[in-house]
Amino acid sequence: MPTRFDLLIKDVQAVDSLNKFNVQSDIGIKGSKITAVAQGLNKEEASTVIEGNFLTAIPGLIDTHVHLGISSCGFNMLTRAGITTALDMSGTSQDIAKTALKFGTGITYGTLEAIIPGTNIANNDPSTEEIRQFVENALSNGSYGVKILGGHFPLTPAASKRMVRFCQDNGIYIAWHAGSTENGSDMKGMREAVTAAAGGFLHLPHINAYCRGSFASPPSETMEALELLQENPAIISESYLSPRNGANLICDENGIPKSKIVLNCLRKNNFSEDREGVRAAIRKGFLAVMKDINHETCLIEGQEGVEFFDEQDSKVSGSFDNINPLSRLLAAAGRRYPANEFTVDALATDGGCIPRNVTLKTGIEFVRMGVFTMQEFVHKACLMPARMLNLENKGHLSIGADADITIFNPQTGKAEFVIVQGRTLLSRGILHSGTPTAFCTDKGLSFYERKNLPVFSVTPNLTRLNRSLNP
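Predicted structure:
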């Protein structure tokens, strides 16, 4: 006789922002969908049962800013952190598809192709026609949209504006790590990006990264950033909860780091803006080098880090510490305007391969601190990210929604079970292998089909988001 549920989650504290509940409940799953959320569901009617005593179940965490192309560890690290859906923001779809097939864990992911002068575009001032060709190639090769890496590999202000306008006019999802050849990844860069958006759609990632005191006090810059978002509601945004950043440490033939983020961090902390400055920062523990150890990207500091940096001839990524103080993290995560909306839409990590996937752990700490309630945390970490990516069946625990569920210990903030489309990917710390599912526009479907990766298409929604916290 057929069972009612393929998987039954018993006795969890179920929290949902869309449906406004925070109750002790059971959750029934059939196939890839949620089919019941109620107390007293019968274990005898289920093929598999998860006992969730003392655990909390929320819609699967959705991270709208990760990096999966830096190493092969990203899918592993995201799953352990409770992430069920992620948007990569710089790696090529080609490279990440290879990683997904070999090292994937079954989560859902999409990609934004970054425009990089000298790599996939001739120079930093591409014409509208060159931008059109880049965007069409990106979408045909499986990307959900595109990104300007202004903080690392900037375009001219005019080219950045052309690219934003082209994407707005053609319904293309575009993110911009603020910065150009004339303005840095700071408040001037954010002002430039907001002006270029001209009241239209733009995804501005990691808002707290632009408020580090380059021109005024960090609190003043944070307030300005939040006011700019309030005045431009078509712009979507996220902030992250880690004190660390991430950057490519590769140096050119003259020993100068290619990334402007690296140069800025070295300068602001009184290190020389060259290879020796990088080595000194690693030696003193202000900068750590990323190294893959046992399927996990780890941070290596001190002399060991310097030696690894030298062995790799600077071709490594790194992470600077204490870049994002708690005060700015709190302001970006918790500010509301008006009273029933958060100013910054979502929580993201800028992590993946970068070891700062702390949305769940730190988010729960923020709940304890009263920055937001548990339902509001779910709103920022699940529902709003789903709306940003137009994933209507994700981000909530409604009947008929995708069975994407993160189950965690509320005392430790540690993910205990991760379920994606009804498949258990993480169980009490044990990872189960699985093939990820990609999402893209219609133009990229054949790319993933040729790769033998499961895929579904999504049409980006570039209209103003429903941000309300009310029912």
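Summary: The two ends are 40 Å apart (CA to CA).
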